[in-house]
Amino acid sequence: MMSELSLIVLLPLLAAVGAAAMPRSAGLWGLGATVVTAALAVSLALGLMNGGGRMVAISGMAAPLGIRFVADGLSVLMVLMTSSVSIAVALQASSWGVWPNRVVPERAASLRAGFWPLWLATMAAMNALFLSGDLFNIYVAFEILGLTAVGLTALSGTPAALRASFDYLSAGLVGSLLLLLGVAMAYSAIGRVDIAAVPVLSDLVSGRIALGLIVAGLAVKAALFPLHFWMPAAHSSATPVASALLSALVVKAAIYVILRLSIESGDAMGSLRLALALMGTCAMFWGAYGAIRATRLKLLVAHSTVAQVGLIVMAIAVSGETAQYAGFWQAAALLMVSHALAKAAMFIAVGRIAEELGHDRISGLNRDELRPAAAEFAFGIAAVSLIGLPPTAGFIGKWMLIDGLIEREAWIWVALVLTGTAMTAAYLSRVVSRFLRGGPHISARAEQPAWRIGDLAALGLATVALLLGLASALPLALLEVTVL
Amino acid sequence: MTPFLPVAILMASLCAAPLNMFVPENATRLRWLVNIGAASLKLGFVIWLVRVVAQGGAPNLRFNVAPGLDFHLQADALSVLFLSLSALLWLITTVYAIGYLAHGAGRSRFFCFFSLCVASTAGIAMAGNLFTFLIFFELLTLATYPLVVHRGTADAHRAGRIYLAYTLGGGLALTLGTIWLYALAGDVTFTPRGMLGDLPQTHPVALTLIFILLIGGVGVKAALVPLHGWLPLSMVAPAPVSALLHAVAVVKAGAFGIMRIVYDVYGIETAQLLGLATPLALLAGATIMWGSICALTQDDLKKRLAYSTVSQVSYITLGIALASPLAAIGGLTHLIHQGIMKITLFLAAGNFAEGHGVKKVSQMDGMGRLMPVSMFAFTIGALGMIGIPPLAGFLSKWYLGAGGLQAGQPAVIALLAASSLLNAAYFLPILHRAWFRAPPVGRKPGRNLGWMMVVPPALTAGLIIAAGLFANAPFSPLGWTRFIVSLEYL
User: Residues 307 to 336 of A: which have CB under 8 A from any B CB?
Assistant: First the structure.
């Protein structure tokens, strides 16, 4: 059966080939595939809400040997998250030209020809990863993802971007090696690699080592402190569109697998959890510290990703036995979605601001005569969502997290989450307060640039992130769907 | 009941916000139409709602956001009290603000956040549970920040940073307290006389801590000492913003929050049982005195008014915390009375600054002759604050005093007397300078302000007189609060 499940992976992959083969119409391939994939994702989600989770064996072989795709609430929510960010990013990327017979500047044409195949392949790899039912498939998806993401980083072609993408490549390879080693050990220990076998793994010593290796590999890929060294440079030197994708989505792939392992293994991850929670906490503070000190806007936003990844991983790690309180991992999933939307909006907005002002120095944000008001507004809304103020989805996520921590009387973690929130507010208000420069002494001469499609994309994403909080019942209901 | 009215009231100002963003900077007519239109529409809806609620209706809207979390709007008698204040004063302040900012910059942004601010106030008034209250309370913080820094000067930004630090800090405390209470009690729907059931017996310590967190959270906005530091600083904002901050939105939201928490979450009996009412009353008393004493030494007119707000808003808290029906009437009425008196004072002060550049008390000589209408309005406001009968402020103080006796706390009378003396001590010198001294020689003729800045304070001054004279009319602030108090102390 050629179901939506396989199509969601195959379609972007085929479109990537098409875009690579026909660079002049890459924009058409990209936009078309993005929209159709998003429609497929929505229809899959609707089907899940009505009929429960699904499992498809590719090539007709059942687990534990065959490849299979599993769609439960969590994986489909991740696919939806990818699709919604993709649409906004595709809108922004369409400014490089869509129609094949239209003449565009050389730089835009080369960016377009490079971006679309890379991004479509990334999308295919991410969807495959979210829908994979076994660890080996996940490893394969990571390999594709790692290479295309490095390509996206290097896309802008500046020396800084090339340097950063080399570091990214090296870090990605180390992560992949650890991951491969872990998967191989898991296979030799119990002879299967499907995710349902994870609880079995944690009964054996070698299995636990395998699990540790896998999680270490994922931590590198998720840029979890102290393995984040490659990330701020990579995310801040790429073109804004690529930064949005890398920061909002690509790191989520690794976090998703950590979350998946945490759910499946129940209480068995033991000391691994503590390590993750500590790393997450340190990331939260280290990232916030970096963002408070950052002098460039893109660097600030990239450091903020370090901090937010820390918060999410910490939320996953403290969940413990998920049977006790499902709210924990659901909170983590909600935080992931909310961060994806807000961070993508933020990077697109930053890109627009830098494009208008010609620089992205934070100290210079309030000195220009130009006011890219729409992008600034989008940044502001995204900031509200990242801080986790109501009514955003980030707020509901934090609420559920703190609620669970209070019920478990884990007051130290409550204090840490609140401190992290305050620090987020501190570094983001550095930027927002400069947007609110105003008053008669500057703005009388200031002019507002015309709206561009990127403003619309950023505003749209930020608004979704803002209002998703009030509609959290929908994603949370989706998360309840399991494969029977 | 249908959810139409609460949604319409919320949307009237919420929709005005994005609309304002698209009003071109110089399209004064369009801006006038959007803002006055929205404010009038909202006032109309609110009047309709008053009638519905008076007939026993409780229109509400409720939907699920997450397991155990509902977004819940409900219009009850208490919300109508706050709503009618904010709707009426929004209209008046909008007229004033359009006149005030006629030639300023960044007007579209200003009115966008101005509308958002009033929308959050409506949401706070109509929140049916603590979760919804928290949403709009935080939204109010965010919406007022751009207004505080509107002038864009270094001073404004410093005040804005401090404002944000205080209110977001308070917001964190409120959030923590709210989540904790939800974890203990499930959905915290506002219910007259409290909703905690037998939790006070089983979890007294947790509930006490939660009370401190909640009151600490809303207390920042209500400017309870020692959480009041942001208020005098944020005086750098333009006059309409100060009026909004002090009379309509921010401090009122804080005082209203204290009301909701004491009356509709804990219930006054539970608050007494846990021994929380008396410390709150003491804190309110201390704030009343401290604010008045600080006001004495301020030469900056707006700062003096700001400290006066710190002091006066705590009358409301005092009335709630004294736990006697009469004091409650006094406190609740003061929510309205302080609103109309303070807005009059701030609008008039804005006129002095705009018309003659007078920003200090020491420059007030002869203002009565230079700007008779504004000065007359200011005088009514000041006399009302002191508590001269038959003005609105007298009624509040009368009921507070009677309530103090009823609660067996005669010290309240002494407190009120001392505070009134202090009020007189910092207001009367201003009035003396303005009316009985000649303007300094060589003062340049002032700027003509236009009716949009002169009529609003005159109008609110009229309200101060009316609220005192017609206190026994059925829909007067006093009449309505009697109705509310009868619900809490049945």
Answer: 327
Residue B475 lies in a domain: yes
Q: List % helix, strand, coil for chain B (3-state, nearest 5).
A: 75, 5, 20
* Burial of residue B306, with CB atoms counted within 10 A of its CB: 0-12 exposed, 13-18 middle, 19 or more buried: buried
Residue B416 lies in a domain: yes
Distance CA B81, CA B316 (A): 13
Q: Which residue in chain B has the smallest CA separation from A436? A: B146
* Structural domains in chain B (count): 1
Evaluate whether residue B403 is within a structural domain: yes
Tokens read off for B288: 């009343």
**What distance in Å separates the CA atoms of residue A153 and residue A156, rounded to the nearest whole number?**
7
Residue B239: name the closest of B313, B305, B172, B310 by CA: B305
ipTM associated with this complex: 0.89
Looking at the structure of chain A, the number of domains it has is 1
- The verdict on A443 touching B (C-beta cutoff 8 Å) is yes
Residue B164 to residue A442, Cβ atoms within 8 A: no
DSSP designation for B391: S
* Selected residue of A324, A384, A392, A403 to mutate for chain B interface (largest B Cβ count, 10 A): A403
d(CA B106, CA A172): 47
Instruction: State the residue range of the domain holding A319.
Output: 4-479
Amino acid residing at B343: I
Rounded Cα distance between A149 and A144, Å, is: 8
Please state the pTM of the whole predicted model. Answer: 0.92
Cβ contact, residue pair A436, B146, below 8 Å = yes
pLDDT tens sequence across B359-417: 898 888 888 888 899 999 999 999 999 988 888 889 899 999 999 998 888 889 999 99
Q: Do B153 and A442 touch (CB under 8 A)?
A: no
Q: Virtual CA dihedral for A13, A16, A22, A26, nearest 10 degrees?
A: 130
Who among B66, B145, B180 is closest to A473 (CB)?
A: B66
Given CB atoms, is A217 within the 8 Å cutoff of chain B? no
- Spell out which residues of chain B touch residue A402, defining contact as CB-CB under 8 Å: 175-176, 179
Chain B residue numbers touching A422 (CB-CB < 8 A): 168-169, 172
Per residue in B152-190, pLDDT (tens digit) is 788 888 888 999 999 999 999 999 999 999 999 888 899
Task: Give the chain A residue whose CA is nearest to the CA of B179.
Answer: A403
In whole angstroms, what is the distance from residue A350 CA to residue A376 CA? 8
